[in-house]
Design goal:
- This protein is an alpha/beta fold.
- 33% of the residues lie in helices and 19% in strands.
- The chain has helices spanning 40-54, 71-78, 103-114, 130-135, 150-153, 182-188, 200-206, 218-226, 237-247, 280-296, 298-303, 318-322, and strands spanning 80-85, 93-94, 100-101, 119-124, 141-147, 157-158, 163-165, 167-172, 192-195, 212-215, 232-236, 252-254, 261-262, 265-266, 269-275.
- The radius of gyration is 19 Å and the shape is globular.
Amino acid sequence: MGPPPSTAPDNQRPFPRPIRRRPDIAGQPTSGIRRRTLLAGVAALGATGAAAAASGCSRVPPADAAGGGHLLARLRAKGSVTLGLAGEQPYGYIGTDGKMTGSAPTIAKVIFKRLGVPRVEPFPTDFGSLIVGLNSQQFDVVAAGMYINRERCAQVIFADPEYQMLDAFLVRKGNPLKLRTYKDIARTGARMATGVGYAEIGYAKAAGVRDITTLPDQLAGLLAVEQGRVDVFVGTAVTVRNVVRQSGTTKAEATPEVTPYVKGKPVIDVGAFAFRTPETGLRDAFNRELHRMKRSGELLDLMRPFGFTARQMTTITAKEKCRP
């Protein structure tokens, strides 16, 4: 992983409006603030996707579990693959030019071309609809930097992760409350915001944070921090760094990376492409190309323009993250 576009407010910057969605590992978000603006391209393509779904996108025949499925052969015959996007910058989103971009679509274009599928097409949706949309065959692959967790492993199969990620905080300039850990947020009683469905909700609750607001995305989080409506917005490190850098804000800053803890143990999340469970043949072919890109350094070269560094590269496997 829309709403219709609206008129941008005066303090809106020329920055792509992603829709940030991540899993809440410890319950549902506690509240929400309505989106004020939205990139028109996302809304338009989202509406197109919704119409396609309503008109029978699921007419693609179901995969045959025997032999690892037949989707790769069908994609080669069709010449295209449809990617489920959650509109989240920098993972997979529609840019200001109306074209699909992000780290995941960029990787997908290279890998699928090598697998004999020359065209890659977007299907924008919200993050919470990605697995449902995948399994109802509205699109072929989830390309949204989706975190691997055990709950999801019971519903889809994952490629090995293309990145690992810690969190970071978006705070007012100078970090007046000295917020460097989730425990700091709980101790100070700071007003925290994060995205709808973010994993960070669960991490905050595990640290004892009680005042949690949900916002549509990191740009809404930046505006809330700048305007003093919240004290801290929490997201992935690359997302928080990117919104500070690309917005040019002088009122807020990103903290160094933050390690979340659950039950006293540190958590390092990893993100990957997701496939329907029968399609092990496609997943395995995708993995072979992904591993070649990791070994050669090509993967980092493709992801670096989106804010990723060598620190985000990982050798963790999907099997490890899905292990009970």
